[in-house]
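Entry 14. Two folds queued back to back today. First construct below, sequence then structure tokens.
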Amino acid sequence: MKTTRPSARWRSRTLALAGAILLGASLLTANAASAQNDPREGLEPGYFDAGVAASGIEVLANLPRSGPFDANPGNFGFVNSDLAFTGDHAIVGNFNGFQIYDVSDPAAPQLRTQVVCPGGQGDVSVYGDLLFMSVEETRGRIDCGTQGASGAVNPERFRGVRIFDISDLDNPVQIGGVQTCKGSHTHTLVTDPDDPANIYVYNSGTSSIRPAAELADCNNGGATTENPTHWRIDVIKVPLADPASAAIVSQPRIFADPVTGAVNGLQNGPTQPTHPSGGAYSPSPNTTTCHDITAYPEIGLAAGACQGNGILLDISDPANPVRLDAVADVNYSYWHSATFNNDGTKVVFTDEWGGGTSARCRVTDAPEWGADALFDIVDTPDGKKLEFRSYYKIPAAQTTQENCVAHNGSIVPVPGRDIMVQAWYQGGVSVIDFTDTANPVEIAYLDRGPIDFPNPTGLNLGGYWSTYWYNGNVLGSEIARGFDTLAFTPTAMLSANEIAAAAEVRMDEFNAQLQSKIVNQPSFAVTRSFVDQAERDGSLAGKALTEVRKHVDQAEKLAAGPANSRAVQAQLDNAARKSGLPADSAVVQAIKALAAALS
């Protein structure tokens, strides 16, 4: 780890810009904090030997790309992309196919399977024994061949969503796929609580439109032509009894003007011709598709990051999503992805300014560009709406050799807090507490120095595409360096009890774009987490704090031995009483829930 120059320029620039931000002077709370002497700045460059700076999180293991997935950094044909999880396995998408890793021991992950099936960008999702993969490039073939598909029209070409049977993880088998007019850049699985026989896939295509001679009904015409391919998403229905028969069942016009019906009804927000940085918005002037959609079926909502807009959707009828609200921001170049908090009352949107391949965390880059935008979901007389609260961007400036911008992340199920772990490409990993959406705070980070191979002085594409929490650890897809397993380490901002409480949550599978309600069951780790939080916020201190911890510790010892439940209850009752906190406080409620669970 190497610490070098203080970042006074970054600090002074952040403060100077605070008054000029469109949505208020309070927006840069997180970034206004000084990054002076941040050890992430000035790290030694390298490929697998770059300098590392970390706080509150550490790398357990790194498995470099290998065999048919290995290439020099910058070769887009072999870039690692998004992640999905099933059981003890992580599935890493890649522009050349996908790889399956055994993560049953996070400190010693093992590569299990490699499936070569080119077509980019290879984003993956899992549902039971099914794996879905996005394909958008013209080289994609129905048979997964590596020879490509030449010509403007080719009957062997595949662009859309592939479906694999992964019941045998050593031998995945492609069993079908759905061709789409713009291919598939990303996709989202959507379940229907009232329809367990089917799942749905929301497909987002951002590439060129295929000629109708290759795929019927594709139309590259303008907004007034009949059924144009732009300005819609694809909804694919997948019968679980026969997934090979999956097909598009609707193509909702979620960008339409509700008054005029014009399909291109969502403008790319700003009326000015260029982004404040001087570059162009993408696209301009209309939003034509979503880059990514995150669904939360249990609350009937989805959040779409859709080029020029962030949108909120009603997905109570998954085949026919309806737009509830749309927001835009002059500072946002390209709305990229979205993450709900666990309660479904907040959304973190990201802006992929520069497309992920450019240096966009430089000391000269405004902290509201290429950042997160945090919104609350509020109830109004006109329905649910998105209400802006603040921005967040990593506070440490990166070099011109490092592609860096806000990218993919997921929530970490620490009880009582909204925490997100997030990838920033070569900006590394940043973990934020956004419980107060107006004041997000970084609580952990990990960063490597710039990749210096094969170009020792230029920008070599790399960094984390995705970092997600799964069953007690953070797993990362590194574009160039391979696959990482990481673990939280206790700090003043995240206690050992909070880390342990989150690790008690176990999932059978996980897709970041399909969120579900996470419940922290009553436990001693959960109870101690709330005690730690009360100490952190000052509501529990001194003798009261000592007494609470003493009685909770004694209750755990008794619960592990032959003592009857009344003795355990007595200790927990004493802990609640001696805390001096109100009956409705998080600490007392956690103690009572634990007592009930042990009775």
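Second construct, same run, same settings:
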Amino acid sequence: MRRALPALVAVLAAAGCATVPPAEPDTGGPTMTVTAPSAINFHFPFEDADIATLSARMADGQLTSHSLTQSYLDRIAALDDGGPRLNAVLALNPQALREADQRDAERREGHIRGPLHGIPILIKDNIDATPMATTAGSLALADHRPSRDAVLVARLRAAGAVILGKANLSEWANFRSTRSISGWSGVGGQTRSPYALDRNPCGSSSGSGTAVAASLAAAAIGTETDGSIICPAAVAGVVGIKPTVGLVSRRGIVPISSSQDTAGPMARSVADAATLLSVIAAADAKDPASGGKARPKPVDYTAHLKPGALTGARIGVLRRTANYPPEVDAAFDRAIEALKAAGATIVDTAIPTAGKWDDAENTVMLAEFRPSLESYLKDTDAPVRTLSDIVEFNRTHESQEMPYFGQDLFEQALKAPALSSAAYRKARDAARQLAGPQGIDAALKKQKLDALVAPSTGPSWRIDTVLGDHFSGAGYGAAAVAGYPSISVPMGDAHGLPLGIVFLGKKWSEPRLIELAYAFEQATHARTPPKFLPSVDDAMAGR
């Protein structure tokens, strides 16, 4: 359920949109009834429309940013607030139509800001974007209104994007409890999969993935520490790019881990994701991960959309990343055959250190979380200033904030080693080495590979408010811990639930990964739009 803002209600009323629901948190989200799709008009003229097409239509006068933005607002009202109630959008930008009008006026004057001019984009709600609150899904930050945009949001606006609103997320980016429910937050309630409304959207960029899949925006921005772009992209049947840590500035983003945090694009095509990445990637002297002299020169990633890029490529196949169900293995086998047919040489391989970094990663994230978070809270003048404050807030508001799971990770983080401690430094160095130079790099070098591939994760699981998430595997962990790039692309489905293939490469290898991912996408065209089914169970049973 979206939080209502007085100005926002007025804007939507003037625009003829549905009234925004009241501000109470939708803590009953996972058990709410859903509307059958037959009761809803799903026709939408911009369903699955890509950025290039929308931009071309605006350039030749067939479309305005105002009408496009209004269309997305109407679709959000129909599918997110009503109908299947996807709960993907946590808050709308009360100035979205005003921004769109400004872009239209600039276009009439011959001023085009950049490749996103007039394009409506959703932002995950752990990223600062004025004038909206940044809540990270927590009621403790419900009134937190940073005075300036995150660096990446400023770059989106400079390139002409219209910030449509904020996407729901797993509260605190899934770093509050080991028993969390992906896609649930105290502010936003439970986001649902648009493919089967009783299924989980994965997280923590849950709303971003669902919104993009359902065409609630042209594209979205997510964030990842370990899997939070790749997993929701995969189960939503969209493309997600998790960049090299430092390629995109993290300033203005609610943090977890300075070693692993990054933001990245989520879109319905590799081309759209590459367009967004070209805009948001930039050096930031105030972000210590930005790369310094080791950072490559700025890249137009759309120049790497090469359909023939798999010809002659050497692709390492990671077959034992998890105990996946047979449907995932079968889809991955078909993906491998598609890679072969497109000209790639397939080499079975393994990451020699797989799993050996788990304990070190856990230590690193727990140790980095509190100081990183408290620095952000201070810098953005948040209403709470310490992790202890948030822990106490959750205890005081237990029925609203902890109806399904607790805050054990927060409590562990309060007791974690200091960043100056030998225990932390040892864990940080071990995690980086085991996942990076001794892991991904070693596998690539040994057999002279261009990239590694694996299933991104398993199919979406049923939303479970008792036991929490049911992950069936993850192919993205090594890249997350190493701080290396990864890209998830749709590769098929299991009983109508999307599946993704993840491409992993060495640090700063985004151009090559985009080439390979794009070539695979063009060879397979595996993405299918969602049908908003209440469940896939009836279809599986032949009913």
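Quick look at the second one. Confidence is low (pLDDT under 50) at residues 1-41. The longest helix spans residues 422-446.
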